[in-house]
């Protein structure tokens, strides 16, 4: 997770980095710290429109979609399917259908990201947020997420409307290297 190789390569920059880190730490410890951190967190939702590498992938380009994966959302707090297998490098369109009578959403991320995001949603229930790795889908409506899974790993997705993921509205995305995917698909 930590980018140690890069840190080693940039030894000359280490002292500058140390200074910057100290300044950041000082900012976080100052009375203005929490407000700053909050501002950054909320703004992150808006800047995500600019393609930004995430541990679980990067914004996908619609013309690079290799597969469309239909996923249903229902008021019994389920995604169907709730396990998605992807080959690393694929750009996937997740085609969401909300078959329920209430709004649902799908947010991709690590379990930790999603938990943090869910806490923010509980604190700011009317928070407006948009990013390529999430979609809000009204009752009876459809939505989509176009995402390029360029990092291998096991990631989560969830509906972060308060109470939904807690009631089971979550799932898992396994991003495997091509060689592994063959084995994985024969399992199903
Ligand atoms: Cu939901």
Distance between the termini: 30 Å
Number of domains: 2
Radius of gyration from the alpha-carbon trace, in angstroms: 19 Å
Bound ligands, each once: copper (II) ion
Q: How many strand segments?
A: 10
Structural class estimated from helices and strands = alpha+beta
Described by strand count, sense and barrel closure, the largest sheet is: 5 strands, mixed
Q: For this structure, what is the CATH homologous superfamily of the largest domain? A: Cupredoxins -  blue copper proteins
**CATH architectural group of the largest domain:** Sandwich
Q: Give the DSSP E fraction (strand runs of 2 or more residues).
A: 25-35%
Helical proportion, percent range? 25-40%
> Order of SSEs, N→C?
HHHEEEEEEHEEEEH
Helix count from the secondary structure assignment: 5
Average residue-wise pLDDT: 78
């Amino acid at each position: 997770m930590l980018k140690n190789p890069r840190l080693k390569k940039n030894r000359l920059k280490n002292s500058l980095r140390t200074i910057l880190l100290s300044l950041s730490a000082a900012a976080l410890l100052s009375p203005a710290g929490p407000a700053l951190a909050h501002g950054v967190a909320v703004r992150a939702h808006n800047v995500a429109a600019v393609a930004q590498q995430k541990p679980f992938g990067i914004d996908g380009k619609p013309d690079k979609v290799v597969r469309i994966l239909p996923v249903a959302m229902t008021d019994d707090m389920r995604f169907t399917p709730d396990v998605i297998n992807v080959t690393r490098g694929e750009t996937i369109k997740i085609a969401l259908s909300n078959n329920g009578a209430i709004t649902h959403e799908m947010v991709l991320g690590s379990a930790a990201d999603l938990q943090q995001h869910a806490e923010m949603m509980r604190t700011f229930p009317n928070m407006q947020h948009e990013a390529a790795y999430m979609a809000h889908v009204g009752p009876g409506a459809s939505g989509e997420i176009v995402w390029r899974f360029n990092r291998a790993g096991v990631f989560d997705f969830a509906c972060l409307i308060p109470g939904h993921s807690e009631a089971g509205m979550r799932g898992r995305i396994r991003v495997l290297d091509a060689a592994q995917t063959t084995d994985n698909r024969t399992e199903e």
